[in-house]
């Protein structure tokens, strides 16, 4: 199925109409502002052209968004929702100009329900504020993307964000019970609610989760909270070689007889760049080719200590050089600041000639993937830094070139394609948590067959027959 769409441009009359909806302080055509809101964290030089909206609007409530969508649908003007703009796939980048819709002013925690163990929030609440609010009530919100200090919960829902606790608790979608949504024609509906079970109709909650702002605009979210553990211990485990670190994971899970809340991986290059970026040192950064970060939780101190000891022994048996236990706030904070800064550290080192990948490999094939990645990068003279959520097989690979290399786009593009070919051979997939967005839409047909791509287009058009909500994302359109 292909479909052609003719979109209208924003005119002065449109801007006047938008001011009617949002008020004068809710609309801006200031070029600097509009340009800033038309970006996310994908490096600008990766785009083949400049993508800038005509106008940015700042919503304060559901009614305004409903009015906007009714208007935009009628006039055939594209609308691109935007959270905090920390996305890594160009999801919030306006592929066809039009209206950029910022959700940043919808930033209230609306309700804490201690009986149902839920929190209801607006989409512009920063993820870490939800973690903190839950912790203040002795509860856990288990969503934990590395960008959590900046990203919004609406963006997390739209991308089905993963992060550091997925191995035990699952991605954002596992914590979403219900949501209020404005559909592309302006109608407002609720999918799900505070109920723990619900098979009344299709599971629209989990169709919306990960739909990258293409099916509707999420305006309220009900999240599941969990009891929090009394004690949390983090381990930093250096391994001499990458293969031993990867092969340790199944032993940690099976012989350890418990699921850690985190199994994170940092290769040597990522570790050295992070040290340089944060001006700090981590143990064995020169000797180890890979570090794992493991996190364990429990309610009984002694029992947790025994468990940690057992896990330490398993790691040493699997070839770990040492096992460091972070059991106080200062050491923990340093460790997680390190992990959460890896991406920025790599980009600070290689800001231009770069591509960030987010592939997922079945656990049994991650070691093969890393070996083949090393081979192709060496063969092409391209450097890489690899890190990520090893417990989920989700590897972030940043391919980069140092210095000024003529033809760097082609060189990096060629390695990127070879990397995808390996991922397909190993039965992995294109993206685990950053999304397809604009950045990867041209590659999706290598990973999904025609029947599925056609189905994606038909679902999109069932929600949005005029294709005005975030067009140009996930699958290619004519
Ligand atoms: C340093 C760094 C570390 C990161 N670490 C992780 C990580 O560990 N795990 C992970 O999963 N991601 C990670 N990311 C990627 C990014 O933070 C996530 O994708 C995050 O969920 C995006 O949220 P946002 O609010 O910034 O969304 P934006 O970038 O603004 O938008 C993302 C998408 O969501 C849509 N959208 C936003 N709000 C709404 C809404 N209310 N309704 C409908 N659609 C909406 C947009 O249209 C867009 O398609 C990282 C990014 C950076 C820069």
From TrEMBL:
Its cofactor is FAD. GO terms for molecular function: FAD binding; oxidoreductase activity. InterPro entries: FAD-bd_oxidored_4_C, FAD-bd_PCMH, FAD-bd_PCMH-like_sf, FAD-bd_PCMH_sub1, FAD-bd_PCMH_sub2, FAD-linked_Oxase-like_C, FAD-linked_OxidoTrans_Type4, Oxid_FAD_bind_N. Residues 48-228 form the FAD-binding PCMH-type domain. It comes from the Bacteria. Keywords: FAD, Flavoprotein, Oxidoreductase. The keyword Amino-acid biosynthesis does not apply. This is FAD-binding protein.
